[in-house]
TrEMBL record:
InterPro entries: Glutathione-S-Trfase_C-like (IPR010987), Glutathione-S-Trfase_C_sf (IPR036282), Glutathione_S-Trfase_N (IPR004045), GST_C (IPR004046), Thioredoxin-like_sf (IPR036249). CDD domains: GST_N_family (cd00570). Coiled coil: none annotated. PROSITE patterns: GST_CTER (PS50405), GST_NTER (PS50404). Pfam families: GST_C (PF00043), GST_N_3 (PF13417). Residues 149-293 form the GST C-terminal domain. It comes from Aedes albopictus. This is Ganglioside-induced differentiation-associated protein 1. Belongs to the GST superfamily. Residues 16-97 form the GST N-terminal domain.
Amino acid sequence: MEDEPRFKRPEVVNDDSLVLYCNQYSYYCQKVLWALHEKDIKFTKYEIDVANDEHFSEWFLELNPRAELPVLQKGLLIVPGSNRILDYLEENYPKNKPLKLSWNENVKILNLKNALDKLPIGVITMGSFLHPRTVVAPKSPFVQPVRYTILERDETVSKRLRDYAKAFPAFNEVLQKKAEFHDRKRQMLTSEQYFLQLLDIVDHVLADAETELAKSGEDVTWIAGEDITLVDISLGCLLYRLYVLGLEERFWAGGKRPQMEKYFNRVMTSENFQHTLPTKTSLLKTIWLNTPSTYKAGIAAFSFSSMIIGSTLLKR
């Protein structure tokens, strides 16, 4: 480890302001971002450089020893984890647009939200990289070169965690346990059968969602009525993640689940949801930085050939 820290904790100028530490490609961060925009709460977003292990840096471990995103900060108050953050926003910003389901809400919808929140999205994401035959046409940023790089980095996560555990003794125990958990998860995910079982669980959850959407009727905008709720945030972000992974054809596209297909289009046209998406420039930068040099050479050669062909055609 380096003597000088690569990352330094950003200064929070105003103790009353909200700061969200997140990563633009995290499913769990996207949920919180969508809720903040829906509730029209002012906040400052700090992008954590996950690709270079900023979430394993000492300053971030002081915020969340589990090294997980997102984390919300208000002065000395630290709230880690998307579900805890969403609960905090509902309890502490009651004058803003409410998103929480009421206590007398449809039991099936409440159960649907619980099922959605239990899905291991990170495991499903990595599984789709390890078993590419299960996906069709992944979208940016999860294109082939980037998936290759993520898989390479994932192979060394346990070793890096153990190195950080030695470097930061105060967090040794939690990082060692995290490394052990990653080893077990990686071993399970090498089995395509295990991954397919996970997809079957997702399929059952989405089948319940399709049933509820069908009950809502054509005039109802969101799954529990006219207003968006936390169940829409969980479901909408899940559908988007499955879409960019290239799994939409398995679960709803092509008329397989017509109500869900309409619902997904509704999510994608939501202005507040659009605020959670990375810009095209950011996507291109991420793809380029995470593309192995061998791929970059091919891209450069292709671009040069295209330029030559294009100029020749123009001369004609």
